[in-house]
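ugh ok so i messed up the first submission bc i forgot one of the chains. this is the corrected input, ALL of the components this time, i swear. 534 residues overall. if the numbers dont match what u have on ur side tell me asap before i send this to the collaborators (the ones from the other lab, u know who)
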Amino acid sequence: MADDAGRATPPASVTGRVLSILSVFEKSLAPRSLTEISAETGLALSTTHRLVGELEEWGAVQRDPNGRYQIGLRLWELGQHAGRQVRDIARPLLQDLYSLTQRTVHIAIRENGEALYIDRVYGTRRVPQASRVGGRLPLHATAVGKVLLAFDEPWVREAILAQPLESRTPHTHVDPVALRKELELVLERGYAVAIEEVREGSASIAVPIFQRTGGIGAALGLVDERGEADALERHLPAMRGIARRIEASVGAFPLRSLGIRPSNARP
Amino acid sequence: MADDAGRATPPASVTGRVLSILSVFEKSLAPRSLTEISAETGLALSTTHRLVGELEEWGAVQRDPNGRYQIGLRLWELGQHAGRQVRDIARPLLQDLYSLTQRTVHIAIRENGEALYIDRVYGTRRVPQASRVGGRLPLHATAVGKVLLAFDEPWVREAILAQPLESRTPHTHVDPVALRKELELVLERGYAVAIEEVREGSASIAVPIFQRTGGIGAALGLVDERGEADALERHLPAMRGIARRIEASVGAFPLRSLGIRPSNARP
DNA sequence: AACTAAGCTTCCGCTCACCGGAAGTGCCGA
DNA sequence: TCGGCACTTCCGGTGAGCGGAAGCTTAGTT
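and heres the new structure output, hopefully the right one now
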């Protein structure tokens, strides 16, 4: 199911082996030694050495002063291309929402049963943070996740609710029946709230961003401290205004496939 | 010298071929058809088909509704790991600078003779923009670039000045002698200015960010319209304050190798 | 509706790039 | 000085990968 359980089964194809090396760095951002990479992928040391060497030469990975490997800058640059259109459009609007509210704001999409955070604007004010750009969190434990679930098609919602729901804090809602009811309320009210459900001390609220083609595309969220949880709703008008503007700017192309250009747009 | 000139010379190793496919998307963010990828890499169509297929299955590339390929979300996620520490530290401080000045701010490092923009904060105010996150611009034509050159070691500066200097607008400074003099002034004053040198209508100013280990690590820049060029200097105190705070937060580890952790920090 | 063409997908046998065991190198700490 | 660990280099056997060619699918044309 997972790519590799962290041991054994080195992929048969060279491409697969190369990708399995990159996958090592998905698990944690800690730099790895050659031996560690070799162990985690199950590849022979000499093979690892050669492949990693090629990756380094290209710039996909780079070495720190101790000779350990980490994802390289070139890969970061390349990755910026993915979903660039959407982020370029959304960013200044997130910025406006931040300026208005002085609260951390973020935008997330659903990706395979998890909420994927595609951008985030925040200042130096210390608020317990759970999300990070490029990171994932459970759909059922975040405000953005609940919005993404509530407004998606029923079979998606049911598929998620059918799985065991991970409990991140004592406050995480893990009962499928109660959660289904909560999602109905989200659908009715047009927003979701999560209070300390992924991280102690942190509360958040989210509203949907719809696609022109219909259906939900993303969710716009705002984070505050637990103490401010009761006052989260006062930000709703601003959030909805920004969500509408993002919808208008994003226009026709699908958020869910993130910035991939639509049909060969006739010039 | 260059990776491939866009034709011929398919790399001998499979790894190289895979990377040359990814390189295709560095040239422009436009989605490509299989045939285009095949042509640009010089790989046989059937080979391209197989390799791209594996890349797609893993999530390194993805297809849009027309079947064209583009960099995939998984690579974007992975790329977020590179330099994450530095961006996580700098971001809220850039945000503060933006809040203070209401001007686009960005941070760049030198990477092989170009300025690489590693982060950027901006609102909806329409200012002609040249830089983008993950993008590169010539060192000699930007304020951040001039700072990066002026404060780097002399041999670096001379190496850049020895090359032919590209003219991006009629205002770009391309005379090496005059530029050397300008850089001396930058070193003396502690900041650099560029007015419409990469993009008409846009002016910018930048200050250095030093590393604890000594030497310049990055440059902090601020963008405004040409009309405001004379008033750029008034932002200097705020910029210098933020630069100092970034230096303090970044601490000991090298900016130039971007967020790679220092020695196996003894716990 | 029949025809054309361009782009994509699948197939398969030959061959050369890749694999990995083993030997070599360099660095540390004892 | 020595042993141990991590990395690097070497090299011959072999199976993964290559690419020509044949089929398939879609869109455009008469």
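quick check: Residues 14, 43-47, 50 of chain A lie near DNA strand C (CB under 10 Å from a C1'). that seems consistent at least. The first helix of chain A runs from residue 14 to 27.
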